[in-house]
Write a structure and sequence with these properties.
Length: 252
């Protein structure tokens, strides 16, 4: 399996964590600190992916100008879009608890905003997965792992809020399954649209995704993880970063 289908498969793997999180929320209530710890690990892994897999590759292919412009541009675009969905009720879409009052997921409109926010978070990650296959060396395991870990708490907290609002299982799992499929589609589009593209363009797109991911981390994941793990969140994130760093070097 290679090319577009491999991109779609790995994009679906990353997005499927949303469905997994929703399933957990539907049948159980996990300790908030455990969920926050998973988010802290995912933050560390994503930071490693941004630094060593994305920006380093963008600089190698396109130089400083393309990578810097794309990095800042991605952060700006994400920030503007994130402000919009946050004002619609999705500010705490990565809330580390499954309490609907805490996750602001109790209303139907809020639940829809959270779903849109999840899609906003997932598109840059999925595009990166698709682009990572263009070099012929296989998918970035670090990126896929980071995406998966960041999506589980999001699916969990948001689905808990939708359930409390009286949404049916069919609705909840339909929403998250749709976003998982959209993640697969984004990875496929990234793979096809940039196949044969100039190195500078690939570098710019990779840097845009990196900037958006880092902005997402600071805006959503890290604050939510820190709220429940407090003094331990930094240490947990460091362990996630180290694990991803080792994995990236062994894979190289």
């Amino acid at each position: 399996m290679d090319g577009i289908w491999a991109a779609g498969f790995w994009g679906l793997v990353g997005g499927s964590a949303l469905v997994l999180g929703a399933g957990i929320a539907w049948v159980a209530k996990l300790p908030q600190r455990l969920i926050a710890a998973v988010m802290a690990v995912g933050s560390g892994v994503l930071i490693s992916a941004v630094a060593f897999d994305l920006m380093d590759e963008a600089y190698r292919q396109g130089g400083f100008a393309a990578s810097a412009a794309g990095f800042v541009g991605g952060a700006v675009v994400y920030t503007i879009a994130n402000i919009a969905v946050s004002r619609a009720g999705a500010r705490h879409r990565k809330r580390s608890g499954s309490n609907p009052d805490e996750s602001q997921g109790g209303g139907g409109d809020t639940g829809a905003a959270i779903a849109i926010g999840a899609l906003l978070d997932g598109i840059p990650e999925s595009v990166v997965i698709g682009v990572s296959l263009l070099g012929g060396s296989g998918v970035s395991a670090v990126t896929v792992a980071a995406v998966f870990l960041s999506n589980v708490p999001e699916g969990l907290s948001s689905a808990a809020g939708m359930k409390a609002a009286g949404r049916s299982a069919r609705y909840v799992f339909g929403v998250w399954s749709g976003i998982a499929v959209a993640s697969a589609a984004a990875a496929m589009v990234g793979n096809v649209a940039l196949a044969g593209a100039a190195p500078g363009l690939i570098a710019g797109v990779t840097a845009v995704a990196a900037g958006a991911i880092l902005a997402m981390l600071v805006d959503t994941m890290i604050p939510e993880a820190t709220e429940k793990t407090h003094d331990y969140s930094g240490l947990i994130a460091v362990m996630g970063f180290l694990g991803a760093f080792v994995l990236s070097k062994l894979g190289g």
